[in-house]
């Protein structure tokens, strides 16, 4: 184990250069950047073949974000720059081999940057790090499974095992994985949603009875008013910009709500439209409401106040039919909102009263209203209340469960929503356990399992002994990197099913295994022939995905085959499940999914229709499956995290050249930062107050309760960000995120509102 869990710490910063932030996303810059990545990593033939199948019917689903593909006709290149980068990273011809691990010790590898790790290529075969050894060594699949099975069987309690999932895992693999964990006897199924949209899921479940969004692409294209809140689609969901462009051309008004004015929301040049490739563009946001980080709840309360004020003089403002027949709690909510003080809302939100009134009026003037949001809303202490405040606005106007209107949490990982549907969750409804038991003749445990933060605490306390990750990069994605490193280091065994090398392979338990798997783009050949898998996107469409490329190495296994191998090696004689059958032919897994999970009737057949099928979504039909049987208004208390005296409020965000912890490159083109990620964006006034010149080298420390966490040597950059706020890149900034600083109710780390102090480095 290395001493430095986060060692992106160079001594010099010669590579940094800067330009003005971009005034649009897409265009020829996007095309050049996609091609460069694909050519460098995969070559013309392999890369070209991969891109030709990306997001096509009969091809494979983009491993990048969860934005849906168009229902109807698709263009021959239905992908974006960042999808192309994800594919280039997966289809690279470089390999991490036995020679590689002979050359570098684990400590040496841990000293390299995340960017360097990704550059090393695909993992060629299983590798094992024995206790006390310094280098990984090759191991056969059989011996690898045996080691894991041995460790799991030796545990005093199945709850000492933790089974993490990252959201790229297919429905089939996810379903079998949770089946295995529950058969083994635990609900310890933390997943990346715990750090992502958990707050949305919880808020929406309580407000509207489903933990998912309620709109389709067609709704987006036909909305009159679209809010894009706390989201940077130009980088993280670039194909969403085509949808916003279409909405715009149909007359929509788009409002961006964000402390940063992101390029993709200013304007978009569609790389597949010749006129826009040559310099034209579509303006996207009509209005930009620049608020303070975490000011959203106050802003939404102001908007609600305005709507209620308008309703005093106009009878068409409130959807009284909806409020009376479909909703609950309106009067309490109205009284609470009336009691809020305008000056307080302005002070806490950082937006002006005029902006709140403008937004309130826009709600009143339009019927087809959609709110989209991502991490800017979910990763705060008050995230659940904020999202419920946003839902309140929709409920007042009946802007849900009707054409062109609804709530749209824009999901991150390409199958994160499907993984949850399949039962990857630390707590599942009783009906799910019953179906699982009757379909497989097993006993499904009911004791609540660990979410991510609890899993880290359990490992730290010595109660989590085997950590198994189906994808992802748990160490770097989790909060409090140093603490999480210690937690993982306490395990007897850590195992990662991965495509590429990452830091979680290097900060390990006493023993460690890396199990290399096929990526989405690759052929998955099993006993019955070529397999395909299914995924669910952000709008609840389930579709097929089939890779066609030659696998990066002959020793890779599919995630499904890995779960089956793991189950056989662990469960032994008690095992009642025919894992061999599932591994040989994935259609048998889908039959079982159909038996256990509502909404998957005739699964194999329906998902084989071009484009797949929409899962039933009750809220979309105005059936609200909440405790009250109605959609619920929430009257939450104002609860805003503002920067404390002498502190700034830090958000941790993604650059344009990364996919979560996978760093494809060192540029953030749209924000005008090149060659360097160890930067902190600050307001000019704050820099002057702290006597920092542009590009000063600073140390950043975060204060939480009585603990201080510090990161040394970051470059301070003046940027258009509200006073009192700052931004750094994830995952470099994760050592600053306190483990216990999480969203109330959902436990999502509050990685967008961290109290920090900044000092001149070495001062
Ligand atoms: N290329 C690429 N695509 C990705 C990913 C990737 O890393 N790279 N990651 C995937 C995943 S897992 C996810 S979850 C999504 C993430 O997609 P995003 O949520 O767009 O990602 P972030 O970079 O975290 O950006 C959050 C945005 O919220 C804003 N923000 C921060 N704090 C606040 C606030 O208090 N209020 C408001 N209103 N705004 C705020 C920031 O300025 C920023 O624009 O993208 C997915 N797609
Ligand atoms: N500070 C801060 N922390 C955050 C966030 C933030 O905004 N700020 N965002 C949070 C969010 S939204 C999320 S979703 C999490 C992400 O957390 P994770 O999902 O755990 O992290 P990723 O970086 O997406 O995982 C990358 C690794 O997945 C593996 N991989 C890639 N493709 C495949 C595949 O097809 N199969 C398998 N088995 N493995 C594969 C590769 O080995 C790669 O190294 O991070 C969270 N952490
Ligand atoms: Mo995410």
Sum this structure up briefly.
By secondary structure, this protein is an alpha/beta fold. It is 36% helix and 17% strand.
State the low-pLDDT regions, or none. none
Strand order of the largest sheet: 6-5-18-17-16-7
Number of DSSP helical runs? 30
Biggest sheet descriptor = 6 strands, mixed
Terminal CA distance:
32 Å
Q: What is the molecular shape?
A: globular
CATH class of the largest domain: Alpha Beta
The count of strands amounts to 33
Could you say what the CATH topology of the largest domain is called?
Answer: Rossmann fold
Structure report:
The structure is a single chain. By secondary structure, the chain is an alpha/beta fold. The protein folds into three domains: 17-21 and 643-760, Beta Barrel (Barwin-like endoglucanases), CATH 2.40.40.20; 122-195 and 416-615, Rossmann fold, CATH 3.40.50.740; 198-410, Dimethylsulfoxide Reductase, domain 2 (3-Layer(aba) Sandwich), CATH 3.40.228.10. The chain is 36% helix and 17% strand. It is built from 30 helices and 33 strands. The strands form ten sheets. A six-stranded mixed β-sheet has the order 6-5-18-17-16-7, with helices on both faces. A six-stranded mixed beta barrel has the order 25-32-29-31-30-33. Strands 12-9-8-14-15 form a five-stranded parallel β-sheet, with helices on both faces. A hairpin with a 2-residue loop joins strand 26 and strand 27 (662-663). The chain is globular, with a radius of gyration of 25 Å. One ligand MGD is lined by residues 63, 166-168, 192, 195-196, 375, 379, 412-413, 470-474, 477, 497-500, 502, 517, 519-520, 559, 652, 660-662, 730, 733-734, 737, 751. Residues 192, 196, 412-413 line the site of molybdenum atom (MO).
